[in-house]
């Protein structure tokens, strides 16, 4: 005597909720940074799909699989969900936007009083958030609005033998490697003193 036939039911698109992932994989980003949210559906039949996105249970005007926030602001904080076609809504994932990745830079000069011929060092001083202490920042220096040292990982601009023409208004700028967050110092006037005869 035969038993009842076993019926295997394939999961349908509607029964499998998608999962949201972040790129970069940070649940907390900083003001001005960019992040991409992706609506991932394991069961992915061929064909076009309409995606729906929700923040704090309210639908937002995004209909692609990838939702990119180019310049994060406080309004982007919230619990995100997505749908792919007729799928269920994904579980909510939280995105937080924190105050600042690094502080506004300011110019430091060594030595304080510079004589013609002295070795001078200008430092672009800023502080990274402890949450992102390994972030590599890039620095650039300007004198009277003209670039004197292009973007590099060094936060110092050195002149081996300062001359009178090195006097002027100095500023520096700090940015993330992608340039998504960029801040500039206020102007600092530097006067090179002539040699005393």
TrEMBL record:
> Does the keyword Aminoacyl-tRNA synthetase belong to this entry?
no
**A GO molecular-function descriptor:** transmembrane signaling receptor activity
- GO cellular component terms given for this protein: external side of plasma membrane
Q: Where is the Ig-like domain?
A: 18-98, 105-188
Q: What UniProt keywords apply to this chain's record, in alphabetical order?
A: Disulfide bond, Immunoglobulin domain, Repeat, Signal
GO terms in the biological process aspect are: cell surface receptor signaling pathway; immune response
Superkingdom to which the source organism belongs: Eukaryota
Q: Which named protein is this? A: Ig-like domain-containing protein
Q: Which organism is it from?
A: Xenopus laevis (African clawed frog)
